[in-house]
Every structure is written in structure tokens, then in C-alpha cells.
Design goal:
Length: 402
Amino acid sequence: MNTFEQIAELERQYLLQTYNRYPVVLARGKGVFLWDIEGKKYLDFVSGIGVNALGHAHPRIVKAIRDQAAKLIHVSNLYYHEYQGPLAEKLCKLSGLNRAFFSNSGTEAIEGSIKLARLAGHRAGGEAKCRLVALEGSYHGRTFGALSLTGQEKHRKGFEPLLEEVTFVKQNDVEGLRAAVSDNTCAIVLEPIFGEGGIYECSVEFLRECRASADQHRAALIFDEIQCGLGRTGTVFAFQSFGVTPDIVAIAKPIAAGIPLGAFIAKEEFATAISPGQHGTTFGGGPLACRIALEFLSIVEEEKLLENVNKVGAYLQEKLKELVSKRNAAIGVRGRGFIQGIQLEIPARPIVDEGLAEGVLFNSTHDTVVRFLPPFLLEEKHVDKGIRVLKKLLGKKRAAAA
Ligand code: PMP
């Protein structure tokens, strides 16, 4: 078997150097735990940045993948298969929206959403109705369209020119939003909770204003729920936690339990703007991915996992707030359910590095935030372990700084 050094060296030689990986080679997982190639065990608070909501090697997912792989992994979207229609129906019923399109990733779900909004915009107001409104600090993906909506300089830098028709507004700036939206706006695009941007929530007041402005100017309100959706906030869609319904919602990450799949779901009045041949994909919505997504949604329902997200999420928040109240180099807690972040006074990356040595996978985002995106199966005893380790590491840093 190759050692960590051999594996890392091979990647150094042959991969585009786009990732700054942690020094660990993961080999297998079970539930909320992972093991590396040397057999060391880790508690997983990252779940593949929100993908492994059912943890690892969930028996029903393993069984369904085995069964479907032996029957049919892929067919072209030229043909029907048994699972795409039922999955679309299920997602429409859960969201209250009308029609779905399946992609391979979150970024592609965003691209498809803005293409649909452009078509609907042009239909409603001609060529000029093409402008997009997005939020400063947001993250929507790395293709040119999604990157053009991403309000973070560090991701955009070096790739200009991007789409020029985007106006950025500060999150929760109601007046700014009103001023930015016009009859030439075809879509307002936002994450109800910023994921990569550091776990900042949109206020209900702001979301209501987005809804009202979109209605007034016949623009599409698009929610990017790729990170915060599908159960992480304790409701199936995050927008159900906020009480504001978008015209289009983009989802991905946990939907097919790790098999690549994304989707956008649209209201009928926008969905009818597209016709055959105007959008498509080779892999998106294949039989394996769609069957597993149906299984994922059934498991979340039957195992009452949203109840667990609400209960253990509240417990996690209470424990994080305790850390903050005792200083511990931490100054705030944001988010809800199983999408939370603790704001540190110090860089988060060294905490994450040392967490590894302690057998806990944490994740840092936005330089000084430790982000929690655990599997929906996480229990209070796992929270206790994570908090114990975090407290120890923050204490060590404070002692070192003193
Ligand atoms: N939008 C949000 C809110 C995300 O968190 C991500 C991924 N981190 C994306 C879009 C892009 O998704 P993907 O990496 O699957 O293309």
C-alpha cells in the first residue's frame, strides 16, 4: 500500500495545483466517522462540505447503489428511465414549485437557473431585460456565469472579464436592494444563508423585500440552496425556514448521497420560457443518481432526520455559545440546524489542522470561521466530543498568545 508521502508526491507531480489539502488520506467511512489509510479514526463535522448528510456507507444507500449499478448506471437524456420523473415530482411536491431540471453539480444548477431567468426575462421585456442582482460576499460556483454572481474578489480575481450585467448589493441592505432592481432585472440571486461566505443569514425582512422587488419588476427570485438546502436548516428547503418562496431554487450537495447530482426547480411561469434544445447535459439526471436521490429523500423522511437536525443543531448552538461566553478566542456563533459557524478572533486554519491530530474533522471558511456541516445523523455525544476538542485547541492558542 502507498504511504501518505507517496500519495501526496504523486499528486504534487501530476495534478493541477488547485487544492491546499489537509495531510490525511481518507480510506473509508461509517456513519459519522471516517478512517485514514493508517486506521486512525476521525469524527466528521464536514460531511464532504455538506454532501454526506447520511454519513458514510449508509446501508440503504449502499444496497440501492449495488442494485442499480448492476441494472443501469447511465442512459442518455434522449431516452426515458424510471427515476427522473418520480424524483422531479417529489422535489416539486416538497418545494411547492412546478418543474425540475437535473444537472451534475451545484454550479451547473446555478448556470441553468440564470439561463432560464434570461429566457423568461427576454420573453417578458425584450433583450434589455437581462440584468442580474447578486449579493456581496456570496458564493455560487466557479464557471463564468456562477462566478460572475459570486461577490468575493478572491474567487473572481484573474478571470475577468466576467458577465458585466451584474449589480452587487450588501446582504440585508433593503434600500440598496430596492435601488438595484429595475425593469431590466431578470433575476435576483442569493443564498438564504451564506455558506462559503462565512455563515451569514439573510434577514426575513430582506428576503421579503427581494420577493416584493422581484414581483414588482417581473424578475425571477433565485435561491441558491446548494449548501443550506435539503434539510440542513431543519426544514427540507431553507426558504421554508424563512417563509419566503423563490421562483427558482438550486440544490445539489447531499441530494444523491455523494453521487454527483444537482437540480434547479422552477415555478411554471418561468419554466415555460425554455424549449427543447435550449439546455441539456450528458450525465445530469441519470438513473443511478436519481434512484439514489429518491432513496436519500425517503431515508431523511423515514428516519425523521430533520427532527434530529433541529434537536442536535440547537444543542450544538448552545455548546458553541458557551464557548463564546467563556471567551476562548471565539466571539460569535451564526447559522442554525446543521449549518453553523463560530467566529474566532484568530485564524481558523491552524485549529482545523490540529483538529486532525485530535481525530476530529473541522472545516474553516472565510479565514476566521470554523464551520459545522455535520451529517444529519450526528448525536449530542458527538457534539460533546467536538466541543471538547475545539475548547482545548482554542485554549492552547490563547495560552500561546498570552
Ligand atoms: N453555491 C453554493 C452556495 C455552494 O456552497 C457551492 C459549493 N460549495 C456551489 C454553489 C457550487 O457547487 P458545486 O461545487 O457542486 O459546483
